[in-house]
User: What shape does this take?
Amino acid sequence: MTGVSSDSAPAELLRTALVRQLVADGTIRDERVAAAFEAVPRHVFVPHAPLDIAYADDVVPMKQNQAGVVISSVSQPSIVALMLQQAEIRPGDRVLEIGSGGYNAALLRELAGPGGAVTSVDIDPEVTDRARESLDEAGYGDVAVVRADGAFGVPERAPYDRIVVTVTAWDIASAWLRQLRPGGRIVVPLRMRGQTRAIAFDLVGDHLESRSTTVCGFVNMQGAGAGYERLVPLQEGVLTFDEDQEGEPHPQYDVLTLPTEQTWSGVEVHREEPLLDLYLWLASKLPGYCVLSGGDWPAVATADSLAYLASRSGSDEVHVELGCSGHGPHAGQLIDHMVNLVQSWDAMHRRGPAFQVHGSDAVLPPGFHIARRHSYITVTWAE
Ligand SMILES: C[S@@+](CC[C@H](N)C(=O)[O-])C[C@H]1O[C@@H](n2cnc3c(N)ncnc32)[C@H](O)[C@@H]1O
Assistant: This one.
């Protein structure tokens, strides 16, 4: 364990309580990850925050842009723990972290040990300066902090056994693939069709294959890898499409004011059940898929109509029934299609998707393909 120079008894108690809570609720399952969390003084990396905030299982915002959007933060401990477990860092690993803050880099250093090497890169000099200072103060002076656009990796310290991305990415940069060792792993919060999940991918030959996924949320990537979404304003709300859906039509501004049609599916889900897999299933099957603001509802658009997922009370207090609402002359067809897909997901596809990533010149396997600037993501569904 690396020395902790700025610790205090109250901080230690709060830290132990946080680790116990994360172990008890099943978030931390790996003893080495628990030990790393016990060792790293999170309060040192969020110096403006009171101790109880520093050791709450919550994100600590560190910087906002002029519009008030958070562009840098120290990530939520439970998300950090889940992603570290996905990464399976081994003693001796060379690790690249994309998006700094210092805290996760210190945890990575605990896991990689003195025989490993941790490099953390951030695009923002304020962040790298603060990370450098905090890492030194907490006793992690051998973590390298680099200011650069992480979309290009850090070639001078490559190759890496693990790349851990802690900022929302739309693409797998070709530099990451080049800088990853054969058999290496990348864990990345990948955004597609309006939803983000941290996916652990292994490099298998020339492509990546998913091993696990976790629901998560991060600040958006800036720099060369930014700006993959297209927003279409409506009178009440906004539709979001991905960059590769450029040619897809969208309805007129006032479509939501047209009369509503609605159909219910008979499929009930728990109120708390994350439905990202269902949403991606719909995205895989519905041309014109987009996301409707005001609840991030999956929707499907044509040039004159719009339909979107809806829910109403289910057979008891904890369940809701899924259905579909729509507006416009073709709403009925869109609704029928979406409701049929909800039913087929419920009957056959609840195990969730698998993902592969190939370079843009590769021969792609069968599946739903999402084109990115440097790669193709292929989504497949087990029967
Ligand atoms: C959620 S924070 C990282 C949290 C951090 N790993 C921790 O220890 O909690 C995301 C960071 O990504 C950085 N970032 C955004 N775009 C980037 C890019 N293209 N390259 C490197 N860093 C980037 C932001 O400046 C921000 O500091």
